[in-house]
Amino acid sequence: MRIPLGLTSLSLALLLVACDTKNPNGMPDEAAGQGAIKVATDNPPKPDSAAARTENAVMPADTSVAGAWLLLEGALRGHDAAVLNQLLDPEFGLWILEQPGAVPLVTRVAEVEAFRRSYQNLPLFSLDKQLMTCPQLQNVARLLEADCALQTKDNAGFARQGCFAGPATAFRALDLWGSATVKGGTAAQGQAAQGRTVRSVLQTRTGFRFHFAKSAGVGGRWRLIFLDLRVPCSA
Q1: Which one, 4, 28, 127, 150, has the greatest CB density within 10 A?
Q2: What secondary structure, in 3-state letters, does 98-158 show?
Q3: Could you report the per-residue pLDDT of 7-27, keeping only the tens digit for each?
Q4: How far is CA 127 from the centre of its chain?
């Protein structure tokens, strides 16, 4: 290396040091670019439990009910009680509405694995055989109502076929407690849960409706509150 004239001894020393810390491409050596070496310890920092809960949360924190529906559909098809239980509201629980005869039957379900439907005493997960396969929910301003003149083997009486999501307005206004048989809870508890519902999902093959509510607080998650397993035009 040719040293320019006029450099002092101090300048020469600094220049030589700078040359030693550069690789042939003019970039810092690999060892120098690595920075301080991280030393493993016997007591690594504990993960942030709040962050972990947020990352692993089952329920979607979004403005639509589509994410919760996908989880519910997957839980029913997979007979996954753990996921289904996480979809339930810890305060209001799950209520199932059936029509085994002239009088509606409303049951508050404490354990989804133990519940038996009034229809042939089937378990709740028997719904997997009746679910429609829909690529996505079709959003409507008002949930469809059944017309018995349109009833077929594959349609419970609706002008359109598929899986629809709409406001739970009609269900909240449904007055059934004066005549219904209530099991596992009280009519007052059932009415409170009914009043919490916000969005409903309808499957037209059976006419089954799935009613959801948002849990309290900012960023509340969608919870399954009511299953209406009554079949339109069955009487």
Answers
A1: 127
A2: ECCCCCCEEEEECCCCCCECCCCCCEHHHHHHCCCCCCCCEECCCCCCCCHHHCECCECCC
A3: 444 443 433 334 444 433 333
A4: 18
The Cα 55–Cα 5 span in angstroms is 64
User: Does residue 93 sit in helix, strand or coil?
Assistant: coil
Q: What is the mean pLDDT of residues 90-112?
A: 93
User: Which ranges in 21-48 belong to alpha helices (H)?
Assistant: 30-33
User: Do residues 209 and 127 make contact, with C-beta atoms less than 8 angstroms apart?
Assistant: no
pTM: 0.72
Q: Choose among 207, 211, 233: nearest CA to 130.
A: 207
| CB contact at 8 A, 104 and 190 | no
Strands of 94-98's sheet, edge to edge?
A: 138-139, 163-167, 199-203, 209-214, 222-228, 94-98, 105-109, 181-183
**Would you mind telling me the total number of residues written for the chain in this entry?**
235
Residue 90, Cβ neighbours under 10 Å: how many?
A: 9
Q: Are 222 and 211 in contact (CB under 8 A)?
A: no
DSSP three-state, residue 176: coil
Residues with Cβ within 8 Å of residue 102, at least 6 apart in sequence: none
